[in-house]
Amino acid sequence: MLKYISSADRHHAAPAAWLSSYFLFSFADYFDRTNMHFGPLRVFNDDSVAAQSGFPQHPHSEMEIVTLVLDGEITHQDTMGNKTTIKAGEVQRMTAGTGLAHSEFNRQDKPLHLYQLWFLPGQRGLAPSYEQKDLGFLSGNKNELVPLVTGQKVLEDVVYMNSNSTVYWSNLSAEKEIEFKTFPIRLTFIYVKEGTIFVNGTELGPNDQARMTDDDVVQIRASTDAQFILIDLPSSEANY
User: Fold this and answer.
1) CA 233 – CA 38 distance, rounded (Å)
2) DSSP 149-189
3) Burial class, 235, CB count within 10 angstroms (exposed 0-12 / middle 13-18 / buried 19+)
4) Which residue range or ranges hold the Quercetin 2,3-dioxygenase C-terminal cupin domain (predicted)?
5) What is the rounded average pLDDT of the residues 121-134?
6) CA–CA separation, 133 vs 131, rounded Å?
7) 60 is in an annotated binding site
8) Separation of alpha carbons 109 and 61, rounded Å
9) Contact 202, 4 (CB under 8 A)
10) Arithmetic mean of pLDDT, 151-160
11) Interacting residues of 49 by C-beta distance below 8 A, sequence separation 6+
């Protein structure tokens, strides 16, 4: 079963002049009890941050926070002592666990574009931790699903998180097709960055979503060159 959500149905928030954000799930001032999460995927924000602006230090706990930088770079500082810069094509994961605080700023003279995803953790009470990798996903392998972040220890050259989920990226060329095998006990989430794809026959354009349940196979075909994110998730809270 596929639920299609158009780009127009995202919640747009601009709480400050320097921030434009699209919330795919209930977040901050946006509350919809029918759109709280999809499996353990609790937050998916599509953020654009103006030059020389950013988020001052703020706290988190009991959440796996994943940041994918799509354009520009972000300067990160946290109470664990990390001071890093995450550039386009890099992936960051923070395990908030028992509690941390961090700040995120765009110190550049051009806008920053990023996705930030929050996952409900598979285990509570963990010590806060941090990981960052340059995976070059924006210009990497074409016509396949490339894992970026996962809770599966069998995958290599990825960022690990405390969630029984995997975040994939794909750069799919026009008229190419890929297949993702799943199970009825799993969920599949797709969000398109650019281009047009058909997911099990349903057309998705830029910033459209597909939320899929009770499937065995997800077939994806691009009608134009496309980039998209696919997230494999458990459907049962017992398996988060």
Assistant:
1) 8
2) EES-TT--SSEE-SSS-EEEEEEE-TT-EEEEE--TTEEEE
3) middle
4) 156-233
5) 97
6) 7
7) yes
8) 32
9) yes
10) 91
11) 18, 19, 72, 74, 106, 111, 112, 113, 114
Kindly give the pairing relationship between strand 159-160 and strand 146-150: parallel
Structure tokens at 240: 């988060």
What does the block give as tokens for 206?
A: 């830029």
> Whole-model pTM?
0.97
Q: Is 102 annotated as ligand-binding?
A: yes
Cα separation, 82 vs 142, whole angstroms = 33
Angle (CA) 138 12 203, round 5°:
55
**Span 73-85, mean pLDDT?**
97
| Residue 106 in tokens | 């765009």
| Element of type H or E holding 217 | strand 217-222
Q: For 9, phi and psi rounded to 5 degrees?
A: -90, 0
Strand partners, 178: 220
Q: Which tokens in the block code for residue 28?
A: 């901050």
